[in-house]
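Collaborator request log, item 7. Partner lab (contact: R.S.) asked for a structural prediction of Chaperone protein DnaK to inform their binding assays.
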Amino acid sequence: MAACGLDFGTSNTTLGRTRDGRPALVPLEGRHLTVPSAIFFAPGATPIIGRAATEAYVEGVPGRLMRSLKSVLGSGLVEETTPLGRERLRFRDVIARYLAAVKARAEQEAGTGFDTVVHGRPVHFVDGDPEGDRKAETTLREIAESIGFRTVSFQYEPIAAALDYEQSVRSEEIALIADIGGGTSDFSIVRLSPERHARAERADDILANDGVRIGGTDFDRMLSLGTVMPLLGLGSPMKRGDLAVPNAYFHDLATWSSINRLYNPKTLREIEETRRDAARPELIDRLYSVVEAERGHGLAIAVEGAKIGASDTGAATLDLDFVERGLGAAVDRGSLGAQTGSLAERIAERVGRCLAQAGIGAERIDALFLTGGSTGLPHVRAALTACVPGARVVAGDTFGSVGVGLTIEAARRDA
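Returned to partner:
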């Protein structure tokens, strides 16, 4: 049996182990070192995870897709149940099934069992709620123990990323670690050096930790509400002109973790009633068709793809042909920034708090180390670099740095 580092992320998951004295991520889906944090339940079949789960959903296989599982930790949702075929499962049990499948794949690939884990965790699972934060970690610990880990400990994700970055550091420096993932944005200010890297105890080197519950899925949600949901009726008037169509359906449909809430007969009846009183019933027809066919995740996938495309190339087309032939929207960096700029500002504000906590000015930061998929958003990166304009910007492994750092920490704790 061996120790591992497990980065269970909102969007992607990695698991690492020490091999020949070096941390190494274990392939979890074919040659891929990451596996998307998604699980698909088909009637009468074993659940499938990762890319295969999303592919099954896109191909129209009957069943239910669940993504962004981590986002329910720290909320009341984690103990709620959801219908999956003929059974109802608590969300915590869905997470357990997903992580059990990840653990089994890693053990098969590594040729050994894992009984000790250092779990990554955000600085705050829940903003401004210490009790909710404690409950989230306790839940994740209980899940880890339920799937066969006998020893479970935790490390902040930005600290783990710092341990990965420190492997390349050649002299002492103070680094701001920014981990902008799918569900949270986390920051650490850490003193690093080759000599310090060898120490088992690093508490004195950690100058500050802070975070905010904003991540890639929030950018998806804001982009969806601003660009897609108006095409389905959001903000449109009722026949009684002083009222707008109820917006709760659209917010659920734009939020990865809430989409499955809509898939029930009661919601469909309510949408039908709304259509009868809507001034533009043809828009509500689109909403009804998406919910009835359980294609909400298809919308979310399209929005996520447009967000990434606009970030990478400057512009993208949001193709909604599966909702209605010819339906779509254009997204470019300007519109992406307009729809989600407030989120980037809130992330940058948290950097300021982290600097204040450390008791140092921005000029003292030697390096800004970036990891997490949402650091690829140009306006997020610009907001971060503006906070520490004199720092050297270092791009880490977008999806692997935290997992590698957790593996380094696992080896230390298991020594």
